[in-house]
Amino acid sequence: MGLSYNVYLNSTRIYGCKECKTHLANHDEIVSRNFRGQHGKAYLFNSVVNVEAGDAAERSMTTGRHVVRDISCRICGAVVGWKYDKAYEANEKYKEGKFILEAELLCTVT
Q: Which one-letter DSSP state was computed for residue 6?
């Protein structure tokens, strides 16, 4: 495996890791702000960068059963949210392949 490089986003509003300020997501990639995580308010994103996904695990959440993976900042290792791999409920399928970032674990990078 070769060297891994950080992705630096170019946008008017960028969300980063609260611990080390590594770029994680572009504000324009938000699908919904109507989510809650372990630490409160959370956002659903189409895509994120500079994260590593953990092992898949089935979890019961307020909206039903899902297969998810915790995602961590690639630089400092802080858990910043999770990725939806699979939703069992038909009306939750739109989440598959998308990412949750918890607001409490983010900062705005300028």
A: -
Local structure of 20: helix, strand or coil: coil
Structure tokens at 49: 């960068």
Give the Cα separation of 66 and 57 in Å (integer).
Answer: 8
Q: Which residues pair with residue 101 across a beta bridge?
A: 43, 81
Q: Which two tokens stand for residue 85?
A: 């791999």
Q: Are 107 and 16 in contact (CB under 8 A)?
A: yes
pLDDT over 90 at 5, yes or no: no
In the beta sheet, which residues pair with residue 81? 71, 101
pLDDT-derived band at 22 (thresholds 50, 70, 90) equals very high
pTM of the model: 0.92
Q: Long-range contacts for 54-58 (Cβ within 8 Å, ≥24 apart)?
A: 56/85
**CA pair distance 100, 84, nearest whole angstrom:** 8
